[in-house]
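[Solved] Which block belongs to which protein?

Original post:
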Amino acid sequence: MPTRLPGQLQYGPHSRLKRRSAFERGVAALRQYVEREQRVVVPRGHEERLPDGRTVRLGVWLSNAKSRREGLEEAQLAELAGLGLPWAAVVV
């Protein structure tokens, strides 16, 4: 088994699960923020605490999601568009 250095990316089925889990946390944080603030504009430095106590760096997460939207699945984009993000709307 190859040795992985700290900070080195790992690819494979487990990394895919981690990305999906991170996406789900981000969506939960965004949903909570939108319900409370009634808007989807999130300051880049904003952090959102989820009910389970975990903190999501929501502003950074949104910025990354937007810049990496080509790599998101259609269902993920649809979920973000459903929360009011126009850049996530799937163009057919």
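(Second protein starts here: sequence line, then its structure tokens.)
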Amino acid sequence: MIRKNNAHRLFSSPENPYMRTILFRRTRLLQALCILITIILSGCLPQNDQEQVTIGGQGWSGRNLDVDHYRNGDPVRHARTEAEWHDAASQEEGAWCWYEGSAGNGKVHARLYNWYAVNDPRGLAPEGWRIPSDSEWQQLVDALGGDAAAGGPLKKSESWVDHDGTAQDQSGFDALPSGSRNCLGGFFALGRDAFYWSSTPSGEFEAWNREISSRNTGVRRVSVNRSIGFSVRCVKN
């Protein structure tokens, strides 16, 4: 019995080479899990061919940005109500929301951000990425046939309502008709239109965006109020 106990202690001892191997592997597994959890919470999963697509020589994210904090770890304000959305705009403070406040919509379409979040010096895009400028958006559009044609190949075909064949699903960009939140706090165009911010201001209170409609194959460049809530895509540094 004593020999048995001694053998058990010897086998289970951290000094045993076999046990050291098991403990090492467990430690590495826990470290890998911690890294994976951190990456998921950051809103930037490891980029693979499905999540990053090259168009016109640029590396674009293949899904809408979905983070609730800036690159330095500070939270982005979650503006749930119309009053909170107005308050953020009045203070020129970055804010995000889900379409109609629905986490279910968020799972499909990710978050809508005002331009103040896009332009915040703490950085909305994850490490290694940036918010595309107006000229970078134009480079993307030109690579896919120009303003009148680029919307078709940018769209994810099964996601658009009444697209009448305009959603061609050819580029891997997988644009979704995620709608917007207007400057009054109301929601608009889910299932019909996609709106994306650029990082480029167009006036004292406006910035450039890109708009894709279910009604045609075009991509519109529009100067809009910075308090509106749009989707965000990123381009690789």
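Accepted answer:
You had them paired correctly. Confirming on the second one: The chain has two domains: 2-42, 52-236.
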